[in-house]
Batch of 4 targets.
Target 1
Amino acid sequence: MKIVIMGCGRVGAQLAGLLDTDGHEITILDIDADNVDMLRRLGIKVFYGDASRYDLLYAAGAEKAKLIVLAIDDTDKTIEIVHTIRKHFPQLTIFARANGRADAYELLELGVKHVYRETFDTSLRAGIDVLHNLGHRSYQAHRSSHLFRKKDEADLRDLAAMRHDRKTYISTARQRIKDLEQILLAEIDRTGDHQDEGWDTASLIDEFGKNDPENIK
C-alpha cells in the first residue's frame, strides 16, 4: 500500500519507521532541509517542500496513495493541507496529528475522522504507571485508562460541535468531567481487590472488544 507522510520530525519519523517495517511503500514530504538530506542519505524517498501545494502532492504520488498522514506540528498548515487534499485527492483517508484538544476540534470540524492528540497516549501510559505505583493492580489501572480514553474521545466529538457556544460548552464540559469522575470512582469500587487473574483471554475480549476503533488519540 502506498502511504504519504507529511512531516518527519519526532512523530513522523517513528511512524514512518513502523510502517516501513510492515512492507508499505512510504513517501515522505518535509520542509526541513536537514531532515530531507538525512532521509535521502538513508535511501528513503522524500520530497522537499510545502505539502499544501497540489503539484508537490501529485509528484509525491498522492493520486495513487490510499492514505496520508499529516504529522506536522503547525495546525494552520495542517488545515491548509487538508483543504488541498479534499479538493484534489478526495480518495485519500487523512490521519492527522493534533497538538491538543483545540486543534483536534478544528480538524474534526473539517471532517477529519482520524485525529491523534500528541500527548494523549503518553499521559494515559504515565497514568497507568502512577496508579500501579500507588498500589492499584495492573488490571485495574489499565481498565481505568481504557474507560478514561473511551469517555474522553466520545466527549471530544460531542464538545467539538458546541464549542462556539461558550456558555453551553462550559456547562456541558463541567458535567462531562463530573460524569467521568463518577465512572472512574464506580470502577474502583467495582473491581475492589480483584487479582490480576482478570487478564484472561475471555475477559479481555469482553472488556476491550475485538474491533474497538480508537480514532482519536
Target 2
Amino acid sequence: MRFKGKKFVITGGSRGIGRAIALLLAKEGATVGINYLRNATSAEETKRLVKEAGGEAYLYRANVGNLENITEMFKKVESDMGELDGLVNNAVLGVLRPVDGFPEKGWELTMDTNAKAMLFCSQEAVKLMRRGGAIVSMSSIGSHHCLPGYAVLGASKAAIETLTRYLALELGPRGIRANAVSGGPVETDALKTFPNYEDVVNHAKQHTPLGRMGTPEDLAKVVVWLLSEDSYWVNGQVIIVDGGLTLW
C-alpha cells in the first residue's frame, strides 16, 4: 500500500495506458482524478474499476489542450482532493501525416494536446503539491526514432522530454521530481488509428527481442514506480520502455 492516502491526477486516464496506471495506483490505496475528453462511458467504467480495486476516483471532463479548461479542471481538483502527490501527463492527440504539406491546424492540435497540455497541467498541479510530489509524462520512441507519418507527434514528444528536464531542475528544490516514460508500440485503441497499424504491429513483434507487443500494463508499472518513493533519486530522466525494440 505505497500510495495509501496519496492523491494523483491522470490526464487521458479513462482508457488504455491511463486506465492501467489508475488501476495500479488504486490497488495500493490511492485516490485518482481521471481526466477525459469525450468518452464518458469509458470514464465511468474506469471509475468503477478503480473503486473495485480499492481506490477512490473523481472524473474531470476537460480538453487539456485548452488553457481555460486546464485552469477550471484544477480548481475542481483542489475542491475535491485538496492536495496532490503526483501528476501523470498521459493525454495524447495528433495528426499522422508526412512533413510535406502538413496542415497548420494539425500542428496546433498536436502541440496543444501534448506539449502545451504537459506544461500547463504541470504548472497547475505543482500549486497543489505542497508536500512535494512527482510528475511523470508520457513520451514515445518517436521523439528520437523516425516512424512513418509521425514527424509532428514526434516533435511534440521531444518537447515533452525537454520540458521534463527543465521541470526537474527548477522544481527539485521544492521536493518535486519530473521524469518521462518513452514507450514503444503498445496495443491500445490509439495505436489502431494509425493508417499503417498492421505494419507497426508486425514490425514490433518481429524486432522486439522479447518477442511481443507492449501492453498498457508494461508502461503503467514503470510510471507507478516513478510516482513512488522507491524512485526518489531518479529525476529529470527519460526511461525507454520498448522491450528492446530500438536496439536495432
Target 3
Amino acid sequence: MHTSAMENAERFKDVYLKNSRPLIVEVGSQIVENQSSLRSVFNYHSRYIGIDFQEKKGVDIVLEDAYSFPLASNFADVVVSSSCFEHSEFFWLTFLEMSRICKEGGLIFMNTPSNGMFHRFPVDCWRFYPDSGVALQNWCRHNNHEITLLESFTSFQRNSECWNDLVAIFAKGNMESCHHPDRISAVFSDFKNGIVNGSDALINPAVLSEDMARLTVASQISNGNIPVSWN
C-alpha cells in the first residue's frame, strides 16, 4: 500500500478512533508481498476481521461472492477499505454491503485512488473525484441505508509517488445520531477539494490535479512566462 494511503489511515485512527477499541472489518484485506497494510495501522487498537475473495495473507474470511458479505447487518463498529475500490467492478455494490454491516452510529473509512498508475489486481476500473463520497451517500440513501458523509478530500502525493487519494469518511445514521464531532480536515490542511457535512463550499478548491498543476508550471517556465533565476 502506498505512503499516502497509510498516512490517511493513521490520521483516521488518530482523529476518529482515539482510545477506542472497535470491532473493525476491512474490505479488501489481502496483504500483498512487500507492502504494508491497514491491519498494521489498526490491529493493536481493535478487534480486526479482514475479508477478501482469495485465501491469502491478511484474509480471515474468504468471500464466495464479492458483493455479499457473510456477516450480519449492524455487525461492525468500523468498516474500512483502502486501495480496493478501483479493483471492484461494481464498487457501488461493495459500498452497500459495507453500509449494511456497519452498526448504527458506526464509521466507514474509504481511501481510493483519484490519480495513479494503471495496475491490474486483477482489474483496474476506476478513479474517484471530489464528489464521489456525496454520490455514494446518496446511492445508499436511495437504497434505504441511512449513511451520512462526514468529510472527504483529495490527499497530496507523498515520497515522489504518483498517488492522490480520495478519502471519504461516513457515519451510519443521520447527523443527529452521529457522535463523531472531530474532522481530519480541521486538523490538517495538506489536501484539496475538501467537503464537510453541512457545507456546500469546497475547502482548498482546485480544478487541476496535482500532476496537471506541475505540468502547467513546468510549461510556463519552459515558455519563459515564469522567470527562473539560477543564482
Target 4
Amino acid sequence: MRPRVEDRDLPALEAATCFVLTDSGRTLRNQAPDHGVGPRLYLGGSASGNVVRIRQDVGGEAAQALERLGADEPPLGEADSTPVHLGAYLEILAAEAPVERCEAGLAWVFPDRLGHDFPAAVLVSSHTPEGDRLLGQLAEKGMPTDVAALGFVDVGELWAPWCVVLHEGGIASIAFAARLTGVSAETGVATVPAFRGRGYAAAATAGWASHPALRGKTLFYSTSRANVSSQRVAARLGLRFIGATLSIS
C-alpha cells in the first residue's frame, strides 16, 4: 500500500519530489537525473492551500515580494484555478530577467489501486530479465528514430524505474521516473505519435506505478493545462486530483 498523505500536505510533498531544495527552502534544481534547472517561481495548489517555491538565484527583495503575494493567493484547488496575482509575479520576475516560460499545470496523486480499462499490451519493465534484454538490444542497435524523437536518444535517457509498452516488438509508449526521492516519485510519459489514442500511455503508466521499486512511495502525475491527452490518461487511471500549479522560468 501507498502511505496515506493528508490532502493539505500533498502540494509540499510534490514540490519536494520535483525539486531539490536548499536548507532555506529555495529551489536549487530539478529532482531529476539530468539535474535540470527548476522554475524561478513555482506554485502548487490544493483545496487546502498552496505552496510557494522560489529559485535560489531570485533576488532577496523579489523573493520576499513573491512570498507575500503567494501567501495571499486563494487555494488553487480546481482544474481551472488561475493565480490572482499572476500578473504581479510576471512583473516582479521580469524586472530581474526576461520571463522565458510561464506554464499552468495540473497535478494528481496515485491511489492504491488503479482502473483497469487498458488495452491488451506487452509490458516490459526495468530491473527484469526482459528489461535487461531490451536495454541490450537498444544499446547495440541504437534508439529507434521515432523513440529518439521523443527525447530518448540513448538508453541513459530511460530513467529507472521504467515500463514500456511494446507493439510488434517496438516501443509504443514509455513511463519513467521523471522525479525520484526516497519517499516519492513522479512519472513522465511519452508515446510514439503513431500509437497515440490507443490507451498505451495509460497501460505504461499503470505498469510503472506497480513497479516493485516504487512500492511504499507516494506517486505523482502532472501535466500542463494545455495537454488534454495527458489529462485523459489521468482520468483513465482514476488518479486523485490535487490542484493547479504554476511554473515561471
